[in-house]
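seq:
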Amino acid sequence: MLRSVEPPIVAGRVPPHDLDAEAAVLSAVLLKPEALDRIGNLLTQEHFYSESNGWIFAAIQAVSADSKPIDVVTVADWLRARERFANVGGMAYLRQIIDATPAVWNVKAHAQIVRERWRLRRVIAECQRISAEGYGDVGDPQQFIAGAEQALYALSSQPEHTTSMMLDEALGLSVAGAVAMRYRTATGAVAGTSTGIGRLDKLTGGLSSGDLLFIGAPTGGGKSALAGGLVLETCAQGFVEAQHDHLGAPVLDENGARVTREVPYGAAIFTMEMSAPEYATRLACTSGHVDFMRLRTGEADAAEMGGYIAACDRIKALPVYLEQRTDLSPAKLRAGVKAARAALRERGARLRTIVVDTVQLMEPDERRDNESEANVVDRVGRELRKLSQDAEFADLTWIVCSQLNADGQLRGSRALDQHAVCVWIVSVDKATRSSLAPEGVTTARIHIRKQRNGPFPRNVPLWFHGRHTRFAESSGSVVADADVASSQDEESPL
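struct:
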């Protein structure tokens, strides 16, 4: 078995390790083989600083996997068969380990010490590698920095890859979540962040933390308009946060009640199709019901210009972070999200929603020769899924705009559907106008093709005001088949 490269001793400084903890783990398992079950998912051979201890642990695991009894004889036999017995110190060292006589029930704590020392050594080794490479030709500095950050963060997130608990613990969390959700719905709130479209909220529970939502539409089909509307709706919401002093104690007013403040939700938009000013203009036109094309071509009259300026004044304080770039990759997106979170925190807001427009224009972190578009999009989608599941970003909703193939599938790779938690397909019937809709408004719908925690497929009827790049709830009915529901007699919010 190959061991990972350990950092060298520098200026007499030995890398972090704890030989007593390593010996305690091995002694506990040799004395009580059932102790291995308590640490089997925590340690492997590479986690031991002592190469001898690492080989002994590998022998213990192999003997156990072969359903043989774990003791000094079977472990020694396994090591002899691989010509490692003399290298680890022979029978004398094995007996020395047994004589350590640790508290067997503390084996998990000892194993965690061994693992944490290994993690520190990995950080040191990674930093030494980054430092050495930094003195050479690194190519694109931003790519190098992003790669270095990702490598270090991968080490910090390793213990979070698996979450294990007993059923009673899981049920306790489930009950607490259900009670909190019942309270929210009793007060008129949705489970997640409201989309602003009541029927959509009812089917989906709103936009939930950790969701990776793909919004698909043909070119010019409204995916960016819908994403922008969701951003405006997100930033109109927030939560109440209790204040704490520098020691972490709650701040109380003169009556002994906790001091709280309202914290607005923020959003970050990463666009590869539009410049940041153009995206901001679209948001203002959506908010102010202003004709985007007339504004863009200079044909807006005084009333329209007044409405546009008023909309800009109204939304300029919204906590929205805009970043436009042509070379967005998952690593650069990670760095951008961190920058957005810091920028919004300075403005007193909490980042809640991420918009990526569009996935087909993203690049993988590493290019491969003669790679097909399907494979590129698949790899990007896989990395987006990892980002959405990352513990650091667990409180975020990820909205990813996607182009469509002629057959209505997300363009580039059918695997995008597998990576997504939710898939919405937007369609706008530009030739059909409801008799109940105002002038310039056409029928549209969101086809919920996939979602984790709700019914699908479902079609949510909408009205689309193309000149304002704005969707709104229509008077149609939600249906489960592919037909758009007919309109009913009720007033439009437009």
